[in-house]
Amino acid sequence: MNGKTVVIGGGFAGLQACRALRRSGEETLLFDPRESALMLPALPDLAAGRVEPALLCRPLSEMLPGNVLHIRQPVTSIDLDARTLTAGGETVAFDTLLIASGSVTDFRGFNEHRDRMYHLDSLESAQRIRDRFGEYLRAAVRPHVVMAGGGYTGLELALALFCRSASKGKACRITIVDPAPDILPFLPEKKRDAIRRFLAAHRVTLLNGTRVSGFDGSRVTAGTQVFEDVFFAGRPVRRSPCRRSRERSGG
């Protein structure tokens, strides 16, 4: 199998690249084992039980230009020197390669009690949060969500769970722990101030300049504070799932 242009990943970036390559007239190979594209920004809404999973998915076949061949196989290795990749046991040669494979969760050493840690990076993880948070709400006397990470995803998920709890008639405490010195530091101060006021109005506690240092399955330690009987979620620290092949690169 040969292809001049290969795209790995059928998410937002991969789809946009395929559309841009439509004008080339040449066949493009898209490698993605999934049948459908996923609306990632809506994952917090699914986690909160606001939308059904089917609304977040659309078949890739309905979105790809005619010159793109979708191969539903995961790429298992890439050799940049040889300009080849391996997928489904076959070797594919390429002239141009675009890697848009997204990310996977890196728990950075938090390997214990993983069944009680909730990250949001896929349809399955959103459904898991939806189901487990419902169970937690029914059992908890004083619900408390501790969110590790105060980026867009962490904030959206925290507020989505807050609203879900309120809809069930329970007041849910929200604590957001983030090592950054301020919330969303890349935004202008005026916007950050508006977000701080909004969060304060929803009784959200911000612990900036603080890291989560421990979790025993129920209790979270962040700096000098310990929070008991919490629902522990967070914006995961991410890394690319792709690895460069060392067979030909020599190291």
Describe this protein's structure.
The chain is elongated and about 60 Å long. It has a five-stranded parallel sheet with strand order 11-18-12-13-14. Strand 16 (220-222) and strand 17 form a beta hairpin. The protein has helices at 12-20, 43-47, 123-139, 152-167, 189-201; strands at residues 5-8, 28-31, 36-38, 57-59, 68-71, 75-79, 84-87, 90-93, 96-99, 104-106, 117-119, 144-148, 173-178, 204-208, 212-215, 220-222, 225-227, 231-234, 237-239. The longest helix has 17 residues, at 123-139. The chain folds into two domains: 5-104, 3-Layer(bba) Sandwich (FAD/NAD(P)-binding domain); 108-235, FAD/NAD(P)-binding domain, CATH 3.50.50.60. Mean pLDDT is 87; it is low at 236-241 and 243-251. The protein has five helices and 19 strands. Helix content is 24%, strand content 29%. The chain is of the alpha/beta class.
Compact summary:
This protein has 251 residues and is an alpha/beta fold.
Separation, N- and C-terminal Cα atoms: 27 Å
CATH architecture of the largest domain: 3-Layer(bba) Sandwich
Choose one word for the global shape: elongated
Strand order of the largest sheet: 11-18-12-13-14
The first-level CATH class name of the largest domain: Alpha Beta
Structural class: alpha/beta
What integer value in Å does the Rg equal? Answer: 21 Å
In CATH, the homologous superfamily of the largest domain goes by the name: FAD/NAD(P)-binding domain
Measured as a percent range, the helix fraction is 10-25%
How many domain regions? Answer: 2
CATH topology of the largest domain: FAD/NAD(P)-binding domain
